[in-house]
Specification:
With 79 residues, this protein is mostly helical. It contains five helices and no strands. Helix 4 crosses helix 5. The longest helix has 13 residues. The protein starts with a helix and ends in a 7-residue tail after the last helix.
Length: 79
């Protein structure tokens, strides 16, 4: 139950809607990047892995690198 309230507090402070919360927990994924992914139907790490190739050309190099790092399981620096 504590995790629920921690997530709620974080979402309120950062003004993150609930549908973007899981993506925003990932390194280098801001609210804007999370919204872009969500609008593309990508909701979690598994979907990032499945769709990484399709996103190439749609996103800038730094965003692609962050997603590749997430997909590979490596931790990108900061958020």
């Amino acid at each position: 139950m504590d995790e629920f309230f921690e997530d709620l507090e974080t979402r309120c402070k950062k003004r993150i809607p609930s549908e973007l919360a899981e993506l925003c927990k990932l390194p280098k994924i801001s609210k804007g990047r999370a919204r872009f992914l969500h609008n593309m139907g990508i909701m979690n790490v598994e979907a990032i892995r499945e769709n990484l190739g399709d996103l190439e050309g749609e996103i800038d190099d730094s965003f692609h690198k962050a997603l590749k790092d997430i997909s590979d399981g490596t931790r990108a620096e900061g958020n």
